[in-house]
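Retro notes (design track)

What went well: tokenization of the new backbones is finally stable.
What didn't: we kept losing track of which sequence belonged to which structure.
Fix going forward: every design gets posted as structure first, then sequence, in one message. First example under the new rule, 106 residues:
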């Protein structure tokens, strides 16, 4: 299985080296990485603009965005729902397996 190696750094300085499994029909790992970086950057920007945003607010917005994108796919709803569950389960397992360390500060 192909993988996408991705390092995520939190605002508090924790870092995670994640090895995400890629779906067998992934067209471009580079495009996936670029979109992931864009989504995370957009979240950081949104969090900076809205004080009092909870982690639940973030997860809710991401779930809504994923539901919208899945609805836009031209397949039966049950197929896109199954794919969403598969992708999130695999990505979350990869995130949980990732080592956590303190990122160096310049």
């Amino acid at each position: 299985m192909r993988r996408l190696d991705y390092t995520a750094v939190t605002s508090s300085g924790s870092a995670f080296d994640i090895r995400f499994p890629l779906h067998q029909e992934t067209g471009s790992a580079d495009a996936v990485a670029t979109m992931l970086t864009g989504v995370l950057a957009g979240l950081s920007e949104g969090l900076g603009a809205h004080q009092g945003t909870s982690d639940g607010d973030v997860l809710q917005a991401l779930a809504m965005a994923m539901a919208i994108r899945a609805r836009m796919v031209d397949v039966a709803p049950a197929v896109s729902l199954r794919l969403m569950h598969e992708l999130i389960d695999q990505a979350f397992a990869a995130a949980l397996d990732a080592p956590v360390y303190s990122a160096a500060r310049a």
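Added context from the reviewer: The mean pLDDT is 93.
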